[in-house]
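Record now logged underneath.
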Amino acid sequence: MKVFRLNEYDWVYAKNLEQALEWYMDQTGLDEDEAFDEHYFEEIDPNVGTTLVHIDELPIEEQKMTQQMIIQGNSLWVKRTFAEVIEREKLKAPCIVASTEY
């Protein structure tokens, strides 16, 4: 399984790009030109790629052990690998594993 950054906004966890794109277009109603942006596209190893997780989404014990945090606005975030997020949240592919908000 891999993580695919399809566009500026979303990262999809899937077994391959075809599954990721087909599932994403079905879920969002976007056509391929809107769903897939070659400029942002990345195929990411879930054990290497990271995303930010809000500190409140972590269990209390993990919050106590977190050493490095990132401040954005009034919020604290921690970096976690996609694999950690997938395991902790028991995600099943295909699904959106990370997304940005503007």
Observations:
- The mean pLDDT is 93.
- The CA atoms of residues 85 and 97 lie 8 Å apart.
- The first strand starts at residue 2 and ends at 5.
- The chain has one domain: 2-99.
